[in-house]
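User: Predict the complex.
Assistant: Input components as received:
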Amino acid sequence: MTRAVRPTSLADALAALAEPSAVAIAGATDLMVGEGLAEAPAVVDVLRLPELLGIRRTDTCFDIGAATSFSRIRGDLGLCDMFPILGQAAATVGGWQIQNRATLGGNIANASPAGDSLPVLLALDAELVIAGSGGERVLAYRDFHVGYRQTALEPGELIVRVRMPVPSPGVQRFKKVGTRAAQAISKVVVAFAAESSAGTLTAVRVAAGSVAATPVRLTETEALLTGARPSAGLADRAAACASSEVTPIDDIRSTAAYRRHVIGRVVRRMTLSVAGG
Amino acid sequence: MTDLVRMQVNGAAVEFDGDPRTRLLDVIRERLSLTGTKEGCGEGECGACAVLIDGEVVCSCLVPVFQVDGSDITTIESLAPPDALLPLQQTFVDAGGVQCGACTPGIVLTLHALFQREPRARRARVREALAGNLCRCTGYERILRAAEEHAARLRGDVS
C-alpha cells in the first residue's frame, strides 16, 4: 500500500522525500492523469508547507512559493504588473478548475517541454531555490532542464521558491498557440522580454516551449535582435532564425513543420510589436 | 501507514479508509453515492467532475483523497434542498441550458463559485470561468444566456 503523508513543515517534507522513489505532489493535475502515481511507494503532499506558499516582494525580486497556484499568481496584481507575461501564461494553464490546483513549482518539476509558464521563467531569468537534506541551493532556472523530462533535481530535493528578478523597464510578450483558445496543451508557446533604449533592443530574451526536448532560449534569435532596431526586415530575419534554431518533433498535438512555421510567425509578430516600444 | 481521511462533505463529517490515492471523485460517487458529480474525461479536461474544496472549484478526478483531509467539500447536491432549485439552476431550465445534462452539475457549480466572488461578472468573464467545462450538446450559447440572465438578476437589471 502506498504511504501518503501531508507534512506541515519543509523539514518534515524533506525527511519524507528522503525515502527512495517518494514522489512529491502539489496540485497533481498532471500526476493524477493516467498511471502517474500508480508505482509510487510513497506520496508526499507539499501543498501545506508554509515555506512553499506566498508571494513576497523584495528590493530586487519577487519571491514566489513553489506551491503557489496559477489562480493566485493571476490574482496578484503587483506580480502581474511587474511580469505581465507570467500572468498571461498562468491564464492559459487549463481552465479555472485546473488553475486553482496547478502550481508554478509543479509546472517546473513536471518538466514537460510544453509547460505554459516555463518559457516565461526563461525569458525573465528566474532562479530556483531548491532544498535538500544538505540545505538550500540556488539554481538559475535556465540550468534546470537537462534533457527530455530530465531535471537537475537530485533525489530527495524539492523546489521551494521561484525568484523573479525585478527587470529594468522594457517590453514583454507572450503567445501560446494551441488547438483552441482555452484548455489546450500548447503546440508552440513563446515568451519574449527586452529592454529598449532609443529604439534599439537590448537584453533580449526569447524562449519557447513545445519546440525541443526542453523549454529553450532561442539564443541565435536573441543575438540577432540584440542591438538592432525593430523593422519589417529585422522581423523577417528573426522569424527565419527562430524557425531554424528550434528542434521540434511530430507528435500527437502538432508536426515539426507546423511548429517551425508558427514559431517564426510568432517571433516576427512580437518583433514588429515592440518597434518603437 | 493508512491514516483515516476526515473531511466534511456538504456539511456532514465523512471518514475514508483506503488507498490514499483514490480519486476524490470516486469517494463522492461510489462511497457516498452522490452521483450528481459526473465523470467525463477523467483527465481534468472537461469539468464534469467539478466540486468545491474549501470554496475553490476543482476537478475532483485529479484530487487524491488524502489531500483533502480536513477540508470542506461541496457537491452539486448541497446547492439547493432536495426537489428545489437555486435561482441559477432554474434559469438554466428556463433558458434551455440543459440538454443531456452530463456537464450541467459542473457548470452550475463553477458558475455558483464565480457569482459568489463576482456577482457582477459579465459574459467575457463567464466564458473564461467556463473555459474548463466542456458541453457537447448545446454549443454553449444557451448556457451563456442562462448565466447572463442570472447575472443580470444579481445586478438588479431585470426582475
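Chain A has two domains: 50-165, 171-273.
Let me know if you want any component modeled separately.
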